[in-house]
Amino acid sequence: MPIAEIISVGTELLFGEIVDSNAAFLARELGARGLTLHHKSVVGDNLGRLQAAIERALDRADLLILGGGLGPTDDDLTREAIAAALNETPQVDEAQLIHLRGLFEARGRAMPDTNRKQAWLIPSAEALPNPVGTAPGWFVRTTRGGQPKLIAALPGPPREMRRMWTEQVLSRLPLPTTALEHVTVHTHGIGESLIAERLGHLTRQANPSVATYARLTGVDVRVAASAPTSDEARAQLTPVLDEVRGVLREWTWGEDDQTLAGTVQAALAGRTLGVIEAGSAGVLCTLLAEQPGFLDAAVTQDHRRLITLGLTPVTLQGDGLVSEAGARELAAGAREHLGANLGLAVVVCTSGEGAGQAHVALSDGARVAAAGLNWPGDPAQLRERAAAAALALAARTLPGWTP
Questions:
Q1: pLDDT tens digit string along 152-184?
Q2: 88, 122 in Cβ contact below 8 A?
Q3: How confident is the model at residue 131 (pLDDT cuts 50, 70, 90)?
Q4: In whole angstroms, what is the distance from residue 55 CA to residue 216 CA?
Q5: Which is deepest, 125, 215, 278, 291, by most CB within 10 Å?
Q6: DSSP state string for 3-62
Q7: CB-CB neighbours of 48 under 10 Å
Q8: What residues pair up with 220 in beta bridges, in sequence order?
Q9: What is the pLDDT of residue 376?
Q10: At residue 22, what are phi and psi to the nearest 5 degrees?
Q11: In angstroms, rounded to a whole number, what is the distance separating the alpha carbons of residues 60 and 56?
Q12: 3-state secondary structure at position 89
């Protein structure tokens, strides 16, 4: 199976000034097409270090993808580094130069002389058109150690990179004939280490593979299988996926492209949802904002206001606001006082001695479901974690609560 490597180019990426979303996109694309990714790296705008990284990558990978460094300025060095690594001399390609000048003239501007480097090519490279930017890419066919190698140099702006990858690079790649099938199971309320323990030997096998990933909404479990055909891959995947689903059924809320908020919306089955948040600063409402069943909300930490919404003084003085009793009363209050069919409440402590404690509850008037969590983190993490817990509770509970 061909081995790929990604090098993201740019000092702004190296210092964290810009998030490297391109590498994540390319990694997903490679995996979906059966290409094995062994290394990803970020290199600043330094010719010597970038050349060394390219040479090292060509020693161990069949396909090298570089992102960024194709601009017209002195610190855009991807072309120079590729040329140096391959011992080739870049020359201005007249067809590319005419195209670039046309882009500027169409906008009533003269092309700066610095942009000439964007028309460079080396003998082993062909230009990749960029319909939404001025930086053409390179697709290089070369050899190293007697083995064929491919290099794709793509622009840094994500919109330009993704379009060039889809329209120009994919059709030039000798993609494997094997098929890859995969399903990602979304869980909440169980830790990654406990999942690995429960799945046991499944996480140690190679094909089908079972891998866990911690996410804001819980832990994802990705089950993948490769085979010569899709049918064969699916046949290998199915029994392992069924076992994973069975082991994790208690904590599962969805699969693949499903989101927590979307899963809750589907489970509402036409019912409306009212929300009360105390301490989570509206994070839950933000997650639900675009869901049609989301009727109304109250976001407040004021005890007097919360008492008018269903929190009893007895609970406030005894158990406290951030308690299961408090969440249960406010879930009932969200339904009653906000005029919804269902009430969902979250109470969370983000500072002081009780920081990390949160309780969530769901009420339909006749029944109440509740859950709690207690885990350290900064205030933003605690709010996000509590909101996700509220959605997970609703996603897992509502399918059993028929309208």
A1: 999 999 999 999 999 999 999 988 877 889 999
A2: yes
A3: confident
A4: 37
A5: 278
A6: EEEEEEE-HHHHTTSS--HHHHHHHHHHHHTTPEEEEEEEE-S-HHHHHHHHHHHHHH-S
A7: 10
A8: 186, 213
A9: 86
A10: -65, -45
A11: 7
A12: coil
Residue 230 has a CB neighbour count (10 Å cut-off) of: 12
Q: In what order do the strands lie in the sheet with 342-348?
A: 294-299, 273-278, 342-348, 357-363, 368-374
Is-contact 324 355, C-beta < 8 A?
no
**Which contacts qualify for 91-96: CB closer than 8 Å, 24 or more apart?**
91/120, 91/121, 91/122, 92/116, 92/119, 92/120, 93/119, 93/120, 93/121, 93/127, 94/119, 95/127, 96/120, 96/121, 96/127, 96/136
How far apart are alpha carbons 312 and 325 in whole angstroms? 9
Burial class of residue 252 (count of CB atoms within 10 Å of its CB; 0-12, 13-18, 19+): buried
Beta strands in 188-266 (DSSP E): 209-215, 218-227, 252-255
Phi, psi of 322 (to 5 degrees): -85, 85
C-alpha distances (whole Å) from 56 to each of 82, 85, 173, 332 are 12, 10, 21, 62
- Side chain identity at residue 375, one-letter code: W
Q: What are the helix (H) ranges across 338-373?
A: none
User: Which residue from 289, 286, 309 is spatially nearest to 298, judged by alpha carbons?
Assistant: 309
- For the entire predicted model, the pTM comes to 0.70
- Kindly state the tokens that stand for 324: 């299961």
Neighbour-count burial of 102, counting CB atoms closer than 10 A to its CB (0-12 exposed, 13-18 middle, 19+ buried): exposed
Which pLDDT tens digit goes with each residue over 178-202?
788 999 999 999 999 999 999 998 9
pLDDT at 134: 81
For residue 23, give both structure tokens: 């590498």
Query: Interhelix angle for 78-86 vs 47-60, to 10°?
Result: 50
Q: How far apart are CA 1 and CA 207, in angstroms?
A: 14
Which distant-in-sequence residues (6+ apart) come within 8 Å of 106 by Cβ? Answer: none
| Residue 331 near residue 324, CB atoms below 8 Å | no
